[in-house]
Amino acid sequence: MAIMKIQFSWEISDQGENTKTPFSDQRVIPAGPLLQASEYDDQQVYKARVKEDIESYGWVSKEDGVVKLPIDRAMEVVLANGLPVRGTNDPPPTPKPKPAAAAAPAQKK
């Protein structure tokens, strides 16, 4: 057993530089989806970004005058002003006519 241990340690120490390959110093990153290195950290970054987004003011479309506001403030505005309603000048929605063949005949009493 002692002889095997000595021989094994000698073989390991002898390999040293011979184990390198011509490509051992090059790192090739494959194309395509990469694995998540730290799922927990990625989730914490995502949650912080979402929290910042829902708790801050900002422009959605400055040209159209559309803003985003915190959810709590948006609920207060809706409670104070109500939901938007259709104006009096807007035409009422027109119902789509049913096809004549699909209409059921009237029953006689």
TL;DR of this structure?
This protein is mainly alpha-helical and 109 residues long. It has helices at 2-15, 39-54, 71-81, and strands at residues 58-61, 66-68.
Notes on the structure:
- By secondary structure, the chain is mainly α.
- It has 3 helices and 2 strands; from the N terminus they run ααββα.
- It has helices at 2-15, 39-54, 71-81; strands at residues 58-61, 66-68.
- Strands 1-2 form a two-stranded antiparallel sheet.
What's the SSE blueprint?
Layout lengths: L1 H14 L23 H16 L3 E4 L4 E3 L2 H11 L28
Antiparallel strand pairs: 1-2
Regions with little confidence, pLDDT below 50 for 5+ residues: none
Report the portion of residues in β strands.
5-15%
Shape descriptor = elongated
Element pattern in H and E = HHEEH
Number of helices: 3
Mean pLDDT value: 76
Name the structural class.
mainly alpha
Helix content, binned percent: 25-40%
Q: Please outline the major beta sheet.
A: 2 strands, antiparallel
Gap from first CA to last CA:
108 Å
Radius of gyration over all CA atoms, rounded: 36 Å
Strand order of the largest sheet: 1-2
The number of distinct β-strands equals 2
List its salient traits.
single chain, 109 residues, mainly alpha, two-stranded antiparallel sheet, 3 helices, 38% helix, 6% strand, elongated
